[in-house]
Amino acid sequence: ETFKRITKEISKVLLNDIKSLTPRDQTGQLINGWNGNAFLVKSVPNGYEVEIVNKAEYATWVNDGHKAYNQFGGPYPIHKRVKVTSPHQWQQGNPTYHVFGHFFVERGILQLNNTTRVEDIIMKELQKWWASV
After folding, report:
1. What's phi and psi for 87, nearest 5 deg?
2. Secondary structure of residue 104 in the 3-state scheme
3. What is the DSSP code (8-state) at residue 133?
4. 3-state secondary structure at position 35
5. What are phi and psi of 22, to 5 degrees?
6. In this predicted model, what pLDDT tens digit does every residue of 5-63 receive, in sequence order?
7. E strands present in 7-131
8. Model confidence over 103-127: pLDDT tens digits?
9. Contact 23, 102 (CB under 8 A)
């Protein structure tokens, strides 16, 4: 039960980090698409896991980047595109442009790993457990 609680607390901190790095737009769908308080801790063979989900269908494209074909229109300003010069990267033919990703999920994980917050959460929960024994 203690390790389940530790997993849940670390997941909450990670979600806050990811939310703070998620780009905001007028609709707010991307930032409000995170699963909020639905932290279901599952038991797996080597411990516990929590699935953090964004309900916006375009979240993966914003995070990872994507290709866009229309140089003069489309939903993104021209300064966010760069022409792909190597034909093996994408298909040949129409002018192909790549919209860079924000990598907010990966940056959130790195941000959490570069602090002592995980260790602090573990120590706090273990001290609670030790006091109750």
Report:
1. -65, -20
2. helix
3. -
4. coil
5. -70, 130
6. 899 899 999 999 999 999 988 888 999 998 765 778 889 998 998 888 898 888 888 88
7. 41-44, 47-50, 65-68, 81-83, 97-100
8. 899 999 999 999 999 999 999 999 9
9. yes
